[in-house]
């Protein structure tokens, strides 16, 4: 039984002009990783208030209501169980390891994902994981999205963790992502600069904002062009949540297959014969965003050696490229 001892407090003001709807529906659409059933459990546990009052799941919210909720976020480290989950480790020594994370795997236990995470797998693989950072996330120096595959660094001790974290903070980590994006780019190289903030319409997703959010900077280069998509390599100047996905969608070239940022609808090529059946077939192959953290470069904290690691593309990604080349 996982015991929850850490929590996250969220305060949301219902926007003016918002149509009246049930509180559980509103919060399921506003809180990341939340579902309606989980929200209903929080309401019954008196973890949700509206204007300071506890409410029922069928409560109807109104514009300008103040909604506050307390969400359990992670289990205690001692309650997180080791699980025998296969890991694709591309490098390991006594201080750190680099894993090629599979798509669909969450980095660490959190609200709604207490098992089957990378941390559960790492605890089975080794008993040496740093405890620096957020409780319940041993070894985790940085993260990539659940449905993004690719390379992640894991620290085995606190000193190594701190040194690696500083490299991320100083933006000296060299990361290259590969993405299949909709459309043919006008220029083969370019950059996207734009603050990333939570969307006012849907708090689960992010958008480029001229005034709010945090500065974000992405470089891209076209590697290969197909009939109605392009293969890109991208480098991050900053590391914001969903950065590549948001920036590519912002310039009208969403990542193919991305269910959140416009990648599962026909963006280009709608006039081509039999386009819908072809796209449906490709989306069946790629049920997620076609985004992979392919390379990782950093200075080893102990040896001072410049490390550069590459990873193979996962099977779904390779199949997608083969079909696009036909």
What this model shows, in words?
By secondary structure, this protein is α+β, with helices and mostly antiparallel strands. The protein has 3 domains: 7-72, Roll (Structural Genomics Hypothetical 15.5 Kd Protein In mrcA-pckA Intergenic Region, Chain A), CATH 3.10.290.10; 77-170 and 305-318, 2-Layer Sandwich (Pseudouridine synthase), CATH 3.30.2350; 177-288, Pseudouridine synthase. The protein has helices spanning 23-28, 36-44, 118-125, 158-169, 243-250, 275-285, 315-325, and strands spanning 7-13, 21-22, 48-50, 53-54, 60-61, 66-72, 89-92, 96-101, 149-155, 174-182, 189-193, 195-198, 206-209, 217-225, 229-236, 291-299, 306-310. The strands form 4 sheets. Strands 7, 8, 9, 10, 11, 14, 15, 16 and 17 form a 9-stranded mixed sheet that branches. A 4-stranded antiparallel sheet has the order 1-6-3-4. Strands 2-5 form a two-stranded antiparallel sheet. β3 (48-50) and β4 (53-54) form a beta hairpin. Mean pLDDT is 89; it is low at 1-5.
